[in-house]
Here is the input.
Amino acid sequence: WSAYQTAYTNVADAINAAIADGKITEAEKNDIDAKLTTYATKLNEFSSALERARQDIIEDKIPIRVEKFTSPGYDTYRDSVPYSAHLAIRVFKDEEDITDTINIARFVWIRISENEAGDDVWNEMHTNAGASVDITNADLAGDTSFICQFWDASKTNLLKTTKF
Here is the structure.
């Protein structure tokens, strides 16, 4: 980035110096041409570095870890007993929790139960729920599972599916 910025500044300065007196000498023209060549090279290098970084993220070369968390008692549901649980996904880059920096739309919650029509309603109601949901007896319909999908920023690549 700084090499690109320096090359840009050098071209701009050379052009401004050359036109300051209203005429451009052969030496000034050659200087501008040389600086434009350097600028084009640095711009190409910068663009290539950006593309490599984008590809690394898409190809999961930058280590991202997704972990699931539940509140205590999550797996102890009993009929006719009040029930509530907190389900959460946390995303780590290296050892840093980056969950709160991620757009909530990248987390997609899906309920799978014995009530398919109710699942569609539940899924719609939990659109953009973010990295966590709270569930109660009302969210359960027979044998019920919850899934959180974590997508890339463009929502074209599913990065991780976690089942609760």
Remarks:
- The chain is about 35% helix and 25% strand.
